[in-house]
Amino acid sequence: MDRYTVKQLARHSGVSVRTLHYYDEIGLLKPAAVGANGYRHYGRAELLRLQQIMLHRELGLPLGAIASLLDADDASRIERLRDYRRQLMQRIDHHHELVATVDRTITALQQEDGMNAPELYKGFSAAKQAESEDWLVDRLASDDRSRDSVRGSIQKSRQRVEGFGKDAMAARMQQLATLEAALAEHCRKGTPAGDAALVPLLEAHREWVAGMWGRPCPPEAYAGLADLYESHPDFRVRYEALASGFADYLPTAMRAYARSFSISAPS
Fold this sequence. Notes:
The chain contains 13 helices and 3 strands, in the order βααββααααααααααα. By secondary structure, the chain is mostly helical. The protein has a 3-stranded antiparallel β-sheet with strand order 1-3-2.
């Protein structure tokens, strides 16, 4: 039977060696065997499981949910997959609409002609905004009272961002891009997510978040934000575009950074 080393599997799948090691550590994808020299070896079953992991990651599922799904019975998996397929088709339709909006914008710029308001904002509907906010509320709130609180916080943050001038907002987004690029480079280099080298970058990132929120971002809130980054499909797409595996690396680093506060606090 064909067996693959971790490097061979990484080359065939496009998943980094570091990520495969991490999947082994958390029990998501264990090798079929480990040689006396410590080398991991993967067989057909492991290749198929990795294919399923990659599929569910594309759908935006967090690793914990993927593990539960893959270990579920066939009937449950089929039902979940059908649900994810419906979500994926809705996302495809939305992206097609956005592509058409981009095409219209390019044409308008080439012709030095203006687009009317409905064309300019097509694909960025109020319904889509509401859908995103509902996604956040469902995951951050446990009852009606906390839902009202979360919605109030979302509204305040939105009003704050809308109050930024164009130049100020551009400067803030450039600062974020610089921080994310530096963190993504650590991901590519294989720096452990809990390494001290990341602390200054994560401190600056937490300060950036607090500045956007208009209120402090304590460690527990920062860890909660990491959970959001890990599970929300839009964030996952954004971070994977920066570096392979970064959608998992950044939330892990953020949680490790947040935990360091409780570890360092005096007893």
